[in-house]
Design brief:
By secondary structure, this protein is of the alpha+beta class. Helices cover 12% and strands 29% of the residues. It has one domain. A 6-stranded antiparallel sheet has the order 1-12-3-10-7-6. A hairpin with a 5-residue loop joins strand 6 and strand 7. The mean pLDDT is 88.
Length: 216
């Protein structure tokens, strides 16, 4: 299912109500109001942005990879994809996408998965799971480790092998590629700008991303 559905946005950067650069390996967490549009920009290309979404009114109803894939009949995310929660609720819709395909199978790197996939000496390396937990603690609205779930990897290329396994391949995004999502209700967004150095998801060189928000 190698779907690439590219669609540019009509929104202008100067009209954004929020604009921030997230350095390589750093994280970001913020609530979106109903109708607001979130854009994540891969500034230098080939950079994975691990992302989770929550119903801000009911954080236990978080993004569900299974409900999202089942609802669209496809394992990849692209323009037109509806991001659904565990209950099946539509949380956001991807309204623009110049990369064309995003992963929702590979999950987030952690200290534990790094040691299993690569080597024991990677244990102290920075990872997305720890970034998620740090951002939750700083956000200070009751989000805890129990609220972590299988996440989206924007701009990340994780093809499925004929045997049903996963491969972490070179990214398919280019400098300036972006993905835009419109929130259906109050939604909490959590991003880890992936620090992974052990596979090609970041071209072995993590780089910054840019995050913008429009009111509609």
């Amino acid at each position: 299912m190698a779907v690439f559905n590219r669609l540019e946005s009509p929104r202008k950067i100067e009209d954004a109500v929020y604009d921030v650069i997230v350095p390589a390996g750093d994280g970001w967490m913020k609530e979106l109001e109903p109708g607001q549009v979130l854009r994540i920009v891969d500034l230098e290309g080939n950079q994975a942005a691990d992302t989770l979404f929550y119903d801000a009114e009911n954080p236990e109803d978080h993004y569900s990879a299974i409900a999202t894939m089942t609802g669209q009949g496809n394992i990849y995310l692209t323009a037109g994809s509806v991001l659904r929660t565990e209950s099946g609720k539509a949380l956001l819709t991807i309204v623009a996408d110049t990369c064309g395909r995003h992963d929702t199978l590979g999950g987030a790197c952690s200290a534990q998965s790094n040691t299993v996939r690569y080597s024991h000496d990677t244990l102290p390396m920075h990872n997305c799971r720890d970034t998620f937990l740090l951002q939750m603690a700083k956000f200070d609205k009751g989000y805890l480790k129990r609220d972590l779930a299988p996440n989206i990897n924007f701009f990340m290329n994780v093809p499925v092998t004929p045997e049903g396994g996963l491969k972490f391949d070179d990214g398919v995004s280019s400098p300036g590629a972006y993905v835009e999502m419109q929130a259906h209700g109050r939604t909490t967004a959590l991003v880890s700008n992936c620090p992974q150095l052990n596979n090609p998801c970041n071209a072995y060189n993590p780089t910054p991303i840019r995050i913008l928000i429009w009111d509609n």
